[in-house]
Design goal:
Elements: H1 4-32, H2 37-51, H3 72-76, H4 86-111, H5 119-132, H6 136-139, H7 143-159, H8 166-180, H9 187-201, H10 203-228, H11 230-242, H12 250-279, H13 286-295, H14 297-304, H15 316-333, H16 339-357, H17 368-378, E1 384-385, H18 390-397, H19 404-412, H20 419-424, E2 432-436, E3 454-458, E4 461-465
Parallel strand pairs: 1-2
Antiparallel strand pairs: 2-4, 3-4
Helix pairs in contact: 1-5, 1-16, 2-18, 4-5, 4-7, 4-15, 5-15, 5-16, 7-8, 8-10, 9-10, 9-13, 12-15, 13-15
């Protein structure tokens, strides 16, 4: 006779093993975050916003950054402003980024309504969801991360809110509004919510949710306008993104995107069809995440085909994944007693596969690249432009310089940058620049270097240096 305590210990062991494997992968993602120049550039606007420096700028003026998204991520990542240098800022910001995503996944897996879901099954679902989560979300600052985390919390609040549960309904509206204030394509989240509410609870519930979300959105918009300016917000969030050209070779881009579409729509769609045909009663609320998953597809596909667009636009899968994994594992567990064992082994296998495919697997924060950039900047203060490491310049010299990607975006959207505007936000004794080694930059910054420049590489950076012209009196 198997004792209940032994059964609980057995379940806890396998669920715990899966959780440890998933947390290892999440930890590796956090450790990898400081190694990317994109994270330095994406975090810099947070410091600009806190210092009152315009983040959204009109043509012909201001510091040019990579930021063309909503203000909500700038607010949510703001704990990083308490850091004392560029490295610690990336680590603090990375902690916020990881914690927000992990908390949203965990709450969804642990609290999603699903008949028969045990605690070990929910913990296994949490681990499996983390292992299946797009790896870029763990190692990059992305506005999509905030959209997804807020969307998961909003959907969780919606499914637990009865008509009279005003607090949860307002919480759902608030987190939905935060998602909308993070990135333009988050409108798919609201569309999916309204479709589900209309079908599951009636038109009045859908209209009320839309009204609450718009009311909170208006408050957030008022704060954003007061902080950043209406014309500047419109130009930075609407005009510039709307003028991004399509990718040069749409066929090549389609072939690159196709595997992600198959993994995130075709395969989950087939599994859901098989599941819902048989056990729809397990979680009627799963229709909400299915609606959000589907409603985000059109804008997600469109975003991947623009210049610079990547598969992070396809974030609808992440709205679906945690709740769907809970329901799927619960259904499998009713038919297969070894679900916890097999699920735990599957999670470990997925993590091992992720580690095998990763370009780097640090177990401590990979800060060497950022530390080298700091060293290179300090060799000649006031003279070095760091167009791919602007945080270094801010912490060492208290100055915000142009980011090369920001300059590039202005050119491709039809707003060329004048030489006068370029010089306005460059080092005062500009005679050197530090660029990514190889072909990682956009070949715009290098055009400012005179023909007599000398170039060499140190680590992952390329130094370009020249003798400045003497000042004429």
């Amino acid at each position: 006779m198997i004792r209940p305590s032994s059964t609980r210990s057995f379940a806890s062991f396998w669920a715990g093993l899966a959780i440890l494997a998933a947390l290892l992968w999440v930890w590796i993602g956090w450790c990898r975050l400081p190694a990317s120049s994109w994270n330095d550039m994406r975090l810099t606007p947070v410091f600009m916003a806190m210092q009152g420096v315009p983040v959204y700028t009109l043509p012909g003026s201001g510091v040019l950054t990579t930021w063309m998204y909503g203000p909500a991520p700038l607010w949510l990542w703001s704990p990083s402003v308490f850091a004392h240098d560029a490295v610690s800022a990336l680590l603090v910001g990375g902690t916020v980024n990881t914690t927000l995503t992990l908390a949203a996944i965990a709450l969804t897996c642990l609290l999603w309504p699903c008949a028969g879901a045990t605690r070990p099954i929910r913990l296994l679902a949490l681990a499996l969801a983390c292992a299946l989560w797009p790896e870029a979300a763990w190692r990059f600052f992305q506005a999509d991360n905030v959209v997804v985390a807020c969307g998961l919390l909003a959907n969780l609040a919606l499914v637990h809110a009865a008509t009279e549960a005003r607090g949860r309904l307002w919480l759902a509206a608030f987190t939905t509004a935060l998602a909308l204030a993070s990135k333009q394509n988050a409108i798919g989240l609201l569309a999916g919510q309204l479709l589900w509410l209309w079908h599951a609870r009636g038109g009045r519930a859908a209209v009320d949710h839309a009204a609450r979300t718009l009311a909170i959105g208006a408050v957030l918009a008022a704060f954003a306008v007061a902080q950043f300016g209406l014309r500047e917000l419109w130009f930075g969030m609407i005009t510039v993104p709307s003028r991004l050209p399509w990718a040069d070779d749409l066929g090549v881009r389609a072939l690159a995107v196709l595997p992600f579409v198959l993994r995130q729509w075709a395969v989950p769609g087939a599994l859901l069809w098989l599941l819902l045909r048989r056990r729809r009663e397990l979680s009627p609320a799963l229709g909400l995440t299915i609606a959000c998953w589907g409603a985000t597809l059109p804008l997600g596909i469109a975003g991947t085909f623009t210049t610079g667009g990547t598969v992070n636009h396809l974030h609808g899968f992440q709205f679906l994944l945690p709740s769907a994994v809970v329901v799927l594992l619960t259904w499998v567990h009713t038919h297969l007693t070894r679900t916890l064992v097999l699920g735990s082994l599957l999670t470990c296998t997925l993590v091992v596969g992720q580690i095998y495919r990763a370009a780097a697997v640090p177990l401590l924060p990979a800060t060497a690249r950022e530390e080298l950039a700091i060293h290179l900047a300090r060799r000649n203060p006031g003279a070095v432009w760091m167009p791919w490491a602007p945080l270094v310049t801010y912490f060492d010299e208290g100055r915000f310089d142009h980011v090369e990607d920001g300059v590039y975006v202005r050119f491709i959207t039809g707003y060329p940058v004048s030489l006068a505007q370029m010089r306005e936000h460059l080092p005062p004794r500009f005679s050197s620049m530090v660029l990514p080694a190889g072909d990682a930059d956009w070949a715009l910054a290098i055009k400012l270097a005179p023909p007599s420049s000398k170039m060499w590489e140190i680590g992952s950076w390329r130094i370009v240096q020249w003798t400045p012209e003497p000042v004429r009196r």
